[in-house]
Amino acid sequence: MLGRVLRSNTTTFTFGRTARAVDMPAFGHLVKAERGRLTLYGLIYEIAIADDPFVRQIVAASDAMSAEKVEDMRQRRQAPVEITALTIAYRQADLLIHGIPPQPPAALQPILPCNCEEIREVLADFACFRLILTCGDCPSDELLVASLLHAAGCQLPGRARDYLTRAGRELVRLLSNDPSRLDAILRRLAAAVEVTP
Amino acid sequence: MSDDFLRDIAEPIQPEADVSRRLGQVVAGSLSKGLDVLLDRDQALESLAVGRYVTIHAGGRIFFGMITDIALDAANIAFEKSPPDLSNPFLRQVHLGASIFGKIHVAPMLILDEDGPGAYTPQPVKTIPGHYAPVTIATPEEVAYVFGEEGAGKDAEGRDVRYFTVGRPLDMDVPITINLDRFVERSSAVFGKSGTGKTFLSRLLLAGVIKNDVAVNLIFDMHNEYGWEGTAEHTSKVKGLKQIFPGRVAIFTLDDESSRRRGSNPDAAIQIGFEHIEPEDVEMLAGVMGLSEAQIGAMHAIHRRLGRAWLQHFLDDDWLEKHYGGYDEDSGKKINAMKAFAEEMGQHQGALAALRRRLERFRRFGFIVENPADDSIARILEYLQAGRNVVLEFGRYGNDLQAYLLVANFLTRRIHDRYVKATEKAFGDESQKPRPLVITIEEAHKFLEPGIASKTIFGTIARELRKYNVTLFIVDQRPSGIDDEVMSQIGTRVTLALDNEEDIRAVFMGVSGGQELRQVLARLDSKEQALILGHAAPMPVVVQVRRYDLDFYRQMGYVEGEALRHRAAESRRMLGGGRKKQLE
To answer: Nearest by CB to B78, which of A171, A179, A186?
Structure first.
């Protein structure tokens, strides 16, 4: 479990968790939450560490702190790390539907990581691209690149390049009226492909 | 949304066409302007060519079409103005076929409607396939199915017809046939600029007509290329129709000496009597002879006054002197015969003198004589009615356009007249109808140019269609010189390379989708490639013309050398055996 839902709406959900580094999800990763018979999938686009009065006091009290103390303070925060995901798909009756779910996940619902098989399935046909590209509050281009590179890493051996090529062509279709934006995204993917074995 | 509904809509759609031959998909278009096809990304534009056939499977039907244009396009004009960095292999792979792509334009030609399992009937195209219908390269089997096999067969309406191979498509090894019965049913034409092989192709088509006996031919052989032998650029000689079909082709000549010198061994020499020439025979030569309207009027006036011998008398000084000359009884002065003749005719003396000078040229033609030995018209008709094809060689007169026009017009007028009478007599009794006749004329625009087409017998024949069982086979290099109305009546047009825009426009006069086919015609090789469209072909087709060589002669039934001796010996044996049997 990565955390629990703090707040949500039909397009995004935010969950909280401790700041431990072991299983901290990253920007662009795919996570999921249950809602009754629905499974909701979201791409992480914001990870926020808010301050609290205790941290503020410590920071104001002294400059010098031992590493153990800093680590202890990080692990035992009163405020959770807040992670927000953009909902891009949901599963209903074994069918994967790309779009906004009928209902958002409930508060305190556990958030789970997705395995590679799920990532390949959810990000297989790029139907979520439009949702990402039109997302008003998220850094959509960066999110798209990060999620694609993450998904490319989950492809079967030798299929990553083909996956990114197909994704690039879908982006051409969606962004042909904005060539400079398209070019910026594709160059990011191209740079990644060059280092992909 | 219920769970069941979601499962139902998730059923995949089965593709109908063979994916391995897929070129792309229909993205736009109309019946009148053709279809735009977006090529799949893995299609190499360079491997496509205009004139190639494609099939489109849609709605349980197969649409047949021809590629008429190939184009480069981009999803956004910005990709043309500022090309993406294609030096990067990944970007290249992404952009090709997505932001920049190839398109082809397809002219829909016909529809194959399924009659039963594996049986289709070609129908004229009256609709178009829907959006994103898959487009594939037509297979040789599909092309062969549409055109039919050489020999006797049935057409789409179930009638008995004969098919003849004219060549092969540019990109596949499939014989392309034309329906010969339809070819002779209406007037047909071979067009092409000089040196493209018009005569070869015409001779080949005529051989097909003769071999299959779909009509009898009268060929006005201006340059002596059809009868005994013709010339080729790379080989010395090719066989004429009489060598291939010795028993079914007769050579008539206007110049016996020339024909014998060339080894033609003509069956008969044509002679025309001065008395047989009528003003109407000369009238259509007005352009080449430089006759004015007044002079044409004068010819008719002379004919009315002098009757059948009008030309002979008008060109005879002694006759004029005898009848209009002499001395004035009152004054004793010599009377100017021409002046007196002109006064009697009500014509201007100068106009008559100029007309006489022009008509004097007929005296140079050795085939125009005062007392012809034979009735040439009757002789030609006798051959035609017996099913023998007549090639009329012009010998040295082939270089004289006046002689060619005069003779072709003279003979055709009279033969057509006999055909009209025979056909009218046979109304209601099909068995009495004369054999269908095809008249071959070269330099046809001289007979059919605007202004005179409506007055000449050739214009009449073209407009009559098959009413009197006479049609034209036109061989010409200037289709733009032919009257529009006549062009619109030409059923089958076989066109070799043409350069002139006006000529190309004329070829497509009255042809549905002609504008698109212009691109195809404009890109034909300068030799031996032809675009065939119209009545005798189920759809327009570009062919590499069949070789006119020894193989062709043999396929037409020609035998030579040892085989000929063997056949002769066999015939002798049969005849001898028959006589022996009778005697016994």
So the answer is: A179
C-alpha B418/C-alpha B414 separation (Å) is 6
Tell me if B6 and A97 make a contact (CB, 8 A cut-off): yes
Residue B421 and residue B507 share a domain? yes
- The answer to whether residue B336 is domain-embedded is yes
- Coil, strand or helix at A40: strand
User: Taking CB atoms and an 8 Å limit, are A165 and B97 in contact across chains?
Assistant: no
- Six-digit token pair at B265? 């061994």
Give the pLDDT score at A18.
Answer: 85
* Whole-number pLDDT of residue B63: 92
**Where in the sequence is the domain holding B387, given as residue range(s)?**
177-274+367-555
At position B127, the amino acid (one-letter code) is: T
Chain B residues closer than 8 Å to A186 by CB: 84, 90-91, 94
β partners of residue B237: B231
What tens digit of pLDDT does each residue of B101-146 get? 999 999 998 898 776 656 677 888 889 999 999 999 998 888 888 8
Confirm or reject contact between A127 and chain B (CB < 8 A): no
In this complex, do B76 and A179 lie within 8 Å of one another by their Cβ atoms? Answer: yes
Choose among A95, A171, A190: nearest Cβ to B7. Answer: A95
Q: Which residues of B touch A93 (CB under 8 A)?
A: 3, 6-7
Q: How far apart, in whole angstroms, are the C-alpha atoms of residue B124 and residue B118?
A: 19
Mean of the per-residue pLDDT values for chain A?
91
**Domain count for chain B:** 3
Residue B3 is which amino acid? D
Which residues from chain A sit within 8 angstroms of residue B93, using beta carbons? 165, 168
Q: How many residues would you count in chain A? A: 197
Q: Are residues B301 and B427 in the same domain?
A: no
> In the prediction, which pLDDT does B18 show?
59
CATH at B519: 3.40.50.300
Residue spans per domain, chain A? 3-195
Check whether residue B386 and residue B350 sit in a common domain.
Answer: no
Chain B residues within 8 A of A95 when measuring between CB atoms: 3, 6-7, 10
Mean pLDDT in residue range B309-328: 83
The length of chain B in residues reads: 584
Closest-approach residue (CA) in chain A for B11: A95
Phi-psi map region of B151: left, alpha, beta (phi>0 left; psi -120 to 50 alpha)? left
B91 contacts A186? CB cut-off 8 A: yes
The answer to whether A76 contacts chain B (CB < 8 Å) is: no
Cα B446 to chain centroid distance, Å, stands at 16
Tokens found for residue B390: 């007549």
pLDDT in tens, A160-179: 999 999 999 999 999 999 99
Q: Count the alpha carbons within 13 Å of B221 in the hemisphere toward its beta carbon.
A: 33
- How many Å is the Cα radius of gyration of chain A? 19
